Amino acid sequence: MVKFLLSRPIAVGMTFLALLIFSIILFRTLPISLLPPIDVPQIVIKVNYPNSSPESIEQNVLSPIREGMVTLNGLQDLESKAGSEVGDVRLTFDFQTRMELAYIEVNEKIDRLTNNLPQDMPRPQVVRINSNDIPIVRLQVIPKEGVDFAEVSLLTENVIKKRLEQLEGVALVDINGRQEKVITVTPNKPLMSGLGLREADLIRAINDGNSELPGISVEDGQFRYFLRLASKLETAEDVGNLPVHGPSGNIVTLSKVATVEHTLSKPTGFHLFQDKEGLVVTVHKQTSAKMNETMPLIYEAVELFKVDYPQVDFELTQDQSSLLNAGINNLQTSLLFGGLFAFAILFVFMGNYRTPIIIGISLPSSLVISFMVFYFFDISINVISLSGLALGLGMLIDNAIIVLDNINRKREEGLPLFEACVSGVNEVQSALISSVLTTLAVFVPLVFLSGVAGALFYDQAVSVAAILCVSLLVAFILLPLLYFLLFKNKEKSAAKEDSRLFKGLLKGYKKVFQGLFAHPGWSLMFLFLLIPLLLGTVKFLKVEGLPPIEKFDVLISLDWNEPIDASQNKDRIQSLLAQLEGNFTVTESDLGLRQFILYEGENAIQQADLYLMFADDEAKESVSRQLKRFFRQNYPQASLAINDAPNAFDQLFNSNRPYYEVRLKNLESKRPIKASQMNQWMEQFPVETWTKGPGLQEGSSVIFKTDLEKLALYGLEVNQLITSIEQLFGNYLITDIRQFGEIIPIQLRNDQLDFQTLLKSNYIYGEEGIAYSLNEFITYSYDSHYKYVTSDRYGIYQSLNLDVSEPTKHEADIRSWGTERDLAVDFAGQYFQDQETIKQLMGILMISILLLYFILAAQFESFLQPLIVVFTLPLGVGGAFLVLWLTGTSLNVMSAIGLVVMLGIMVNDAILKIDTINRLRAIYQTKDGMETRVALTMALYHAGEIRLKPIVMTSITTILALIPVVFSAGLGADLQRPLVFSVIGGLTIGTFTALYFVPLAYWFLSGQRGAIKF
């Protein structure tokens, strides 16, 4: 095959050129994003029910929704959480579920349930979770001093949002911090009392004045006209000019007995930027969009906003494209330094400049052609797929060096150039195919992991498979073709001798080789003893999901654990920021209820998230200590969590689920257990270290009790009292003014006084117009209540989160404790998901090792020789663990990828070494007629000489190409450094393994005993 292709160099060259051009065209169409578009199998149903308690939301809203959702196809888990005024139901599906169909089905069920839900509640929102839900950037919109905030809210909603959504690549624009303009009517109660007017008279006057005819038409000859009432309200002045009829027939203008004004609605949440109130706009990209093209469009649009809307300040923050740029820069750096070092190493070892040029052409060609595979497999260019390409670069360089070195060696043996190219490729062809197949056998099965990990590995597996398969195509066709063309005019000249450096290296290798084989049994035993010693260093490694990235920003999540309103929450945050002023560079806060459509976290008025960016790590640590001290002294009851600000990786990998959760259910009442009873029981709980889950967290409340007997005695209706309380304490909506899609509510507003005073100074009227103070019929008391009601598909539960190293060993004691108190006990949490993932991973790795063994058994036609390759892997892994431990690096996702990179190269070297030994042994026995023992000795010796150059060159080239990352700074270097340490540690030991362990193990398995003399 190689001979046939090399005989037609022009046709082969043009074919490769056409492939490159076609791949470049396809590459320009590939979407570029931070992460692959992962369909997380979760849907969240969000409920907003103002002025409702957690118990009311659970009973009237969430319980019917849960009952309606249990029959969903593919539903795996169902949980709900009810808080004050808000609630959510989280649906988790099997990972094979088609989420677009599940989303439609959930919406259909919500529509069917509408009649069973409270009529005054807005329709629940259905949010589908996707990796693209992570915003690529946040736009801060801050009104300048004196500018109407409501007008800026309208500008952001109707103009800024629309203009951003029109940009190419933008899928969704989400807003938080909006405030609506309302018309408030505040009665002058002493004056109204003197005129004999009541609040009901004001409400009736406004409703009558805002009436509209329901589409009545009249005919006037041949024309038809629609009737319209001229009394339709449009402004606050129109409301103030309405006539109010009193009980005695007197008429007074509404503005005489009440204050009517445009104002902002009572806020339930705020957004702050640099201590100023504003709005935040999050921008989400389309799945197929290129982030590196979308982000410049957003920056350009914001510059136009600054010119067009000078009354507003604009600022872009938390740009997530920096992560993608870091990944692309790392790949570019690897290519640049890999090419430079490959050139230098090849020049030093081979003494000519043509061979490095061949590799310089083959590396980028392989990468570009790999992108064609991306197109056909619908893979985007993202950090995960780029890491797969970086993973395959080591194997790519390895294959190129092996092929070129083998061709060079054939020329040194005296073969003509054409025959050297053909023979050099054919000799290593089967071994290289086997090495690629074994690498894929180790890596590709990881695609079958469930959950997000399996979805991420799909992109990486496809990119690895693409570049490895393309590397074989390049190694077998393009490399010999380029070699043939570049050395065509040099065919008569002998190949240059090895450099002095390599001769010195070869001399040292022979000495060590002869020393080890003087006592091969002891040498092999020593190497086998190294395996447990090196692998044992894993006990000293810290295990993390992602490597610790140097971050100068933090996210402070706090819950005041007090029944404060949003304005008080804002005042406290602003006071806190004033004390910290000068210690940070950027601050951003989301307080109270979030208005984001895609927000699916906890939502409570007394909560806040505070983002702080610092100039350096010292300021970050200083402020963290200052914050803890501030809250300990001023708000000891507040819950405070200070963490590094999450990036897109953190938001995707980190789970909101507790690590290990104990769920308790009341079997008798199927309702939450009273706090007093639960606190008493928890004193005998068998585990000491635990924290309360949401269903056990308590908050203060005021309980109104109605005296029904007194109401009946005075001839009053309960509904009258309820209406009076709603008008007094709630944002009582009288009616709406609707103009061209704009809705302005008209609300009744009372004095902002404490509730005791309001109850004394407000009245309810009997049949004869007799006024009775509200406090005559209402008694109040203070009490604590549960802030949340949590439920799953089986009903209401309350939970504890255990903080112990081995949580499962306490299960029996906890179940016994629950049985004594007639409680059903269940266990849940991320712990069980992690255990399932580990089981899957172990099973997949066992399958990978079996596949590797079967492939090698077919390659070597032996059941024993594949064991040599299998036993080289622990040595490489142990070497990687040793370097990770010495450098203080954790075992994380990136270091694990480095292990796969290193093992791929190690397997490649071991396979080629064994293949060469087998081939030489057969030659010495059949052609030269040597005895078995002598043939084995010569094969082991000469195979080491032949494979020394490619093994050493591959290791040195790969290690030197990665060294610059160790001394670099920044986000990209922080991500890649664990990978680099894994590769360096594994290849350092792996090179020694391929040079000495493989021949020693081969000798042992051959059945020959005793020392060997060379």
Automatic annotation (TrEMBL):
<feature type="transmembrane region" description="Helical">
    <location>
        <begin position="464"/>
        <end position="486"/>
    </location>
</feature>
<feature type="transmembrane region" description="Helical">
    <location>
        <begin position="331"/>
        <end position="350"/>
    </location>
</feature>
<dbReference type="Pfam" id="PF00873">
    <property type="entry name" value="ACR_tran"/>
</dbReference>
<feature type="transmembrane region" description="Helical">
    <location>
        <begin position="979"/>
        <end position="1005"/>
    </location>
</feature>
<dbReference type="GO" id="GO:0042910">
    <property type="term" value="F:xenobiotic transmembrane transporter activity"/>
</dbReference>
<protein>
    <submittedName>
        <fullName>RND multidrug efflux transporter</fullName>
    </submittedName>
</protein>
<feature type="transmembrane region" description="Helical">
    <location>
        <begin position="357"/>
        <end position="377"/>
    </location>
</feature>
<feature type="transmembrane region" description="Helical">
    <location>
        <begin position="383"/>
        <end position="404"/>
    </location>
</feature>
<feature type="transmembrane region" description="Helical">
    <location>
        <begin position="436"/>
        <end position="458"/>
    </location>
</feature>
<keyword id="KW-0812">Transmembrane</keyword>
<keyword id="KW-0472">Membrane</keyword>
<feature type="transmembrane region" description="Helical">
    <location>
        <begin position="867"/>
        <end position="887"/>
    </location>
</feature>
<dbReference type="GO" id="GO:0005886">
    <property type="term" value="C:plasma membrane"/>
</dbReference>
<dbReference type="InterPro" id="IPR001036">
    <property type="entry name" value="Acrflvin-R"/>
</dbReference>
<feature type="transmembrane region" description="Helical">
    <location>
        <begin position="951"/>
        <end position="973"/>
    </location>
</feature>
<keyword id="KW-1133">Transmembrane helix</keyword>
<feature type="transmembrane region" description="Helical">
    <location>
        <begin position="893"/>
        <end position="912"/>
    </location>
</feature>
<feature type="transmembrane region" description="Helical">
    <location>
        <begin position="841"/>
        <end position="860"/>
    </location>
</feature>
<dbReference type="InterPro" id="IPR027463">
    <property type="entry name" value="AcrB_DN_DC_subdom"/>
</dbReference>
<feature type="transmembrane region" description="Helical">
    <location>
        <begin position="516"/>
        <end position="535"/>
    </location>
</feature>
